[in-house]
Design a protein that fits this description.
Layout (H helix, E strand, L loop, with lengths): L2 H8 L13 E8 L5 E8 L4 H7 L4 E2 L2 E2 L3 H16 L4 E9 L4 E8 L8 H8 L6 E8 L4 E8 L2 H7 L3 H4 L6 E8 L3 E4 L5 E2 L5 E7 H5 L7 E5 L2
Parallel strand pairs: 1-9
Antiparallel strand pairs: 1-2, 2-6, 3-4, 5-6, 7-8, 8-13, 9-12, 10-13, 11-12
Helix pairs in contact: 1-4
């Protein structure tokens, strides 16, 4: 999953084009040693909540139609329905805070590979092309967690077609991935990642602009203590 895909999944993409302040996308994966786990996807616009609240009172801004709360909730509910039908996925929940403008979707998986095609398929239903190839795997015998990420070459080209005021929306925006484990981490191959003091979590934080421009790759291989 990548930031642009998460925006659509969590639906606040409908608001992002008309903002001019920071927002944050957070992806959290908690892995158990048996290969099962949980995912929490969050998009947080709370730093822009005053502006968002004002925008929500309008019909359109800068040529973009402003969705109603009902429309945003409807789309979020549809994503939940899709997830509940996905193989290996269970315990699907969502929350939307329209006071602070934070949306979250969470679910459990039987194997981390179950999440590989979820956002791609949701985007396909919306007739939106994915901006990267991203896949996850976990080898139970070696206790190795991997994320492979590769940006689609046309993503930057499409971004450059945006108007300057639309590009500016992404200034200050961040993407954070957090992976948690039952066993201590011995190796995290991505130099931009940080291992927690407990050795049981790995975090990587990047600006959205660096991802769009290909200045950072969020691929990682994480070896756990055997």
């Amino acid at each position: 999953m990548n930031p642009k895909q998460l925006y659509k999944l969590l639906l606040f993409v409908l608001l992002i084009p008309i903002l001019s302040s920071c927002f944050e996308v957070i992806e959290e994966i908690s892995m158990k040693n048996d290969g099962t786990g949980d995912v929490v996807l969050t998009i947080n616009l709370s730093q822009s909540k005053t502006k968002v609240a004002s925008v929500m009172l309008l019909d359109s801004v800068q040529g973009y139609k402003v969705p109603s709360r009902q429309k945003i909730q409807q789309e979020l509910n549809e994503a939940v329905v899709y997830l509940k039908k996905s193989e290996g996925i269970s315990n699907v929940k969502s929350s939307s805070d329209f006071n602070n403008y934070i949306a979250t979707i969470s679910f459990s998986f039987k194997d981390v590979s179950n999440i590989n095609n979820i956002t791609k398929n949701i985007l396909a239903q919306q007739k939106i092309k994915a901006t990267n190839t991203s896949s996850y795997s976990y080898n139970k015998s070696t206790k190795t967690f991997s994320r492979k990420y590769q940006a689609v070459s046309t993503a930057k080209t499409e971004f450059n077609k945006l108007k300057a005021k639309d590009k500016a929306v992404f200034n200050g925006a961040t993407y954070t991935s957090i992976y948690r484990f039952e066993s201590p981490v011995t190796i995290s191959t991505n130099p931009a990642s940080n291992v927690s003091k407990s050795k049981k979590a790995v975090m990587l934080k990047s600006s959205i602009m660096d991802l769009i421009n290909g200045k950072i790759n969020v691929s990682n291989t994480i070896q756990l203590s055997k």
